[in-house]
Structure to design on (337 residues):
């Protein structure tokens, strides 16, 4: 495959290159793309140096697949140009997620919806992916009615500038602020921009995207998204009410058997998911699994995953792998590496 990584110099872009290399994605030609600011910069992939190019040059090169992690505006402007040139775009931004003509895909759940006609495919929000990975098997068995989620999100979810802000604060140096307030020793109930209804855009992504991925509008999600000074992954406290009653041992068993999900749940040994543990891993970790004693058929759990991996890069590469395995993408180039 001739592959373009758009946003290669960013937080997600860097992990994308690692994940492509680790999974040995078959690449005959790699195009590393970023803004005009970065054109000419050198980046390394599998010990080989590549020069960063601009978007127009990348479209002209007609890659088979372009994986975008360069913000919503860039995707809105450029994904259609790649698609027109015959490229299949997998987009990490929120630009196309709720577009009814675009698929919103978590491969373990709904990759079977993909066809060769899909030229722009949306990767869900990082907080959404980890939540639906754990909810999907439970929804199938017990049918969800309502989910209440509070997130504890890593600064890496905001990008390079936010990680730098936290590092500057720790080092006691002045620098550019990604957030309106200090993030060290703080918790900001503010992820992405505020909307008319008083919720943030991140909270509305958590409310709407799961219905589209699970292809079911009969359940609802109410979210509060909070930024905290961690770097390894996002955590979520999830309270879910089902139509049917459940057995806790069966819930643990269902989650344990779900590919991509690892149960870490033993209060006797202080075993529970944490960002420090999830960091650098592809799985979604679930623990603190317990019955909500205040309401019928209701479960509490704690879900943690590395937002840059399953929340972004790994999910996107899994989509690319699925397209390739199922011959849903044009393969115009001979594989040489
Ligand atoms: N961080 C996460 O956990 C996460 C998870 C899921 C999805 N996402 C999404 O992934 C995207 C990137 O996030 P990030 O955290 O990696 O941000 P980031 O660290 O700020 O990186 C942004 C990347 O986009 C490039 N870019 C910005 N403006 C561009 C333009 N006009 N044309 C071409 N390239 C441009 C940047 O290039 P320069 O270096 O040249 O500026 C950089 O490579 C966002 O859409 C975000 O919503 C992020």
């Amino acid at each position: 495959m001739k592959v373009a990584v758009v946003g290669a110099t960013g937080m997600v872009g860097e992990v994308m290159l690692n994940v492509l290399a680790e999974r040995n994605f078959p690449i005959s030609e790699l195009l590393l793309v970023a803004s005009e600011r970065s054109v000419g910069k050198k980046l390394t992939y599998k010990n080989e140096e590549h020069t960063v190019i601009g978007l127009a040059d990348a479209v002209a090169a007609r890659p088979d697949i372009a994986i975008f992690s360069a913000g919503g505006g860039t995707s809105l402007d450029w994904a259609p140009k790649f698609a027109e040139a015959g490229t299949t775009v997998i987009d990490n931004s929120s630009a196309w997620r709720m577009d009814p003509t675009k698929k919103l895909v978590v491969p373990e759940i709904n990759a079977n919806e993909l066809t060769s006609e899909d030229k722009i495919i949306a990767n869900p929000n990082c907080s959404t992916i980890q939540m639906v990975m754990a909810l999907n098997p439970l929804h199938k068995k017990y049918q969800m009615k309502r989910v209440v989620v509070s997130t504890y999100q890593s600064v890496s979810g905001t990008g390079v500038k936010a990680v730098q802000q936290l590092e500057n604060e720790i080092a006691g140096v002045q620098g550019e602020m990604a957030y309106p307030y200090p993030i060290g020793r703080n918790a900001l109930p503010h992820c992405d921009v505020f909307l008319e209804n008083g919720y943030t855009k991140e909270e509305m992504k958590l409310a709407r995207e799961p219905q589209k991925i699970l292809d079911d509008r009969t359940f609802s999600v109410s979210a509060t998204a909070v930024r905290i000074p961690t770097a390894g992954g996002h955590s979520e406290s999830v309270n879910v009410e089902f139509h049917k009653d459940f057995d806790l041992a069966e819930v643990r068993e269902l989650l344990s058997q779900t590919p991509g999900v690892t149960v870490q749940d033993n209060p006797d040994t202080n075993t529970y998911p944490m960002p420090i543990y999830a960091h650098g891993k592809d799985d979604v970790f679930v623990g603190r699994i317990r019955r909500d004693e205040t309401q019928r058929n209701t479960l509490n759990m704690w879900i943690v995953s590395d937002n840059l991996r399953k929340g972004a890069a790994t999910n996107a590469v899994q989509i690319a792998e699925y397209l390739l395995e199922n011959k849903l993408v044009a393969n115009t180039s001979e594989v040489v590496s």
Q: What stands out?
A: The chain has two domains: 2-123+313-326, 127-305. Residues 127-305 form a domain with the Dihydrodipicolinate Reductase; domain 2 fold (CATH 3.30.360.10). The two ends are 10 Å apart (CA to CA).
